[in-house]
Design a protein that fits this description.
The chain is mainly beta. It has one helix and 31 strands. The chain is globular, with a radius of gyration of 22 Å. The N terminus is likely disordered.
């Protein structure tokens, strides 16, 4: 009997010791060092100043009280609205991209124009000449309709179709005046966004564009075929003059939620190797290490409900994925989810934060240990995802 009690006590002690030494899930704490966005708005896209890691911009697609781009200059302790509001800002903001070479220069993609600021948000100008292709003809969901195109006044969405045409903007990392946008097809500007020409358009919906940092003539685009939503990634190796579909029968089964916009797709190119690319399509992460010749799923330990993907530009193979899934406790839907990290190019994933559903995660390229995320609340980590702060 005594031996049994001693053995039981030893087992309990060992269990307690294991529990105390086992790695625990990082938890978020509420702190005044991170303020919520004004009016309770959420973040649809993040952009970071290339010179100052404490300057962060956030676009709120469906902002309360108007359409906004918020800005912080102290790492999130205080937020204020830029002048992205009022006349011409009645349409939704679908993307926000900072020039990687010019501090204070940003592009905001909306459903009627690409807006540009060169002074950190104090003033914005809309440009859409040539942005939506010739003859004002736009293909949506397997049918072609008329009435939406470059003739529209920015801010006036008098067209027949879904929101969400300028879903992404990508800037050449060497020549800042060269800009690409996902506006139905791929549009290219060589004068800083003032005018646009069609680089790729086959009556398909382009949702994301990525440029290889070390080889800017190599451009990738996620393309969805109407009306099925079946996806493929196209590649150009000559600055957008010609395009070809990259290969993978496995990738072709992925599909987009809905039609023509509000996509959760994501593209990230390895900072050290332009042949290595990561894509989140149809809620699944894929990877290629041979420039798109073949794609493979990268979902070991990762739920199949990925909403965004971000890479660390200084640590090749380090990725973050946000997850927003639905649970049904007691018959009622509740959004939940988390943030996952991979340090081996997506081969395995580990959850670094869990709680409410996360719609967007972004890494600050100037200080990659700082990560921002948005779901029900604004989140931030300053140590590579080990601990998190909830805006409070």
């Amino acid at each position: 009997m005594r031996k049994t009690l001693i053995a039981a006590a030893a087992l309990i002690a060992a269990s307690l010791l294991a529990a105390s030494t086992a790695p625990s899930m990082p938890r978020a704490t509420t702190a005044s060092s991170l303020a919520p966005l004004p009016r309770g708005n959420g973040a649809g896209a993040f952009a970071f100043d290339p010179r100052s890691p404490t300057v962060v911009y956030v676009a709120s697609a469906h902002a309360s009280g108007g359409v906004y781009v918020f800005k912080t200059t102290d790492g999130g302790q205080h937020w204020r609205s830029t002048n992205a509001r009022g006349t011409g800002w009645e349409s939704d903001i679908l993307s926000l991209t900072a020039d990687p070479r010019r501090s204070g220069t940003l592009y905001a993609g909306t459903d009627t124009a690409v807006y540009k600021t060169m002074d950190g948000g104090r003033g914005w100008r809309p440009f859409n000449r040539g942005l939506f292709g010739p003859s004002h003809k736009v293909c949506q969901c397997g049918r072609c309709t008329w009435g939406f195109g470059s003739h529209l006044t920015p801010g006036k969405t008098d067209w027949n179709g879904n929101n969400g045409w300028v879903l992404d903007v990508a800037i050449d990392p060497i020549h800042s005046n060269i800009v690409y946008s996902a506006a139905g097809g791929v549009r290219k500007s060589t004068n800083g966004g003032h005018t646009w020409k069609t680089a790729f358009d086959k009556c398909r919906t382009v949702t994301r564009i990525a440029i290889a940092p070390t080889r800017p003539e190599s451009i990738y685009a996620i393309v969805h075929k109407d009306p099925t939503g079946a996806a493929a990634i196209y590649k150009s190796t000559n600055g957008g003059r010609t395009w070809r579909a990259t290969g993978s029968s496995e990738f072709a089964v992925a599909s987009v939620f809905g039609c023509c916009g509000d996509s959760m797709d994501a593209l990230a190119i390895d900072p050290a190797n332009p042949q290595t690319l990561y894509a989140a399509v149809g809620n699944t992460v894929f990877a290629t290490t041979n420039g798109g010749a073949s794609w493979h799923r990268r979902a070991n330990g990762l739920p199949v409900s990925v909403t965004s993907l971000a890479d660390d530009p200084q640590r090749p193979g380090t990725l973050y994925a946000s997850v927003h899934r639905m649970k049904l406790p007691s018959g009622m839907e509740r959004p939940t989810g988390g943030i996952y990290q991979s340090t081996n190019g997506g081969r395995t994933w580990a959850e670094v934060w869990s709680g409410f559903g996360i719609d967007k995660v972004a890494v600050n390229p100037t200080r990659p240990s700082t990560i921002y995320a948005q779901g029900d609340h604004l989140l931030r980590s300053t140590n590579g995802g080990r601990t998190w702060t909830i805006a409070g």
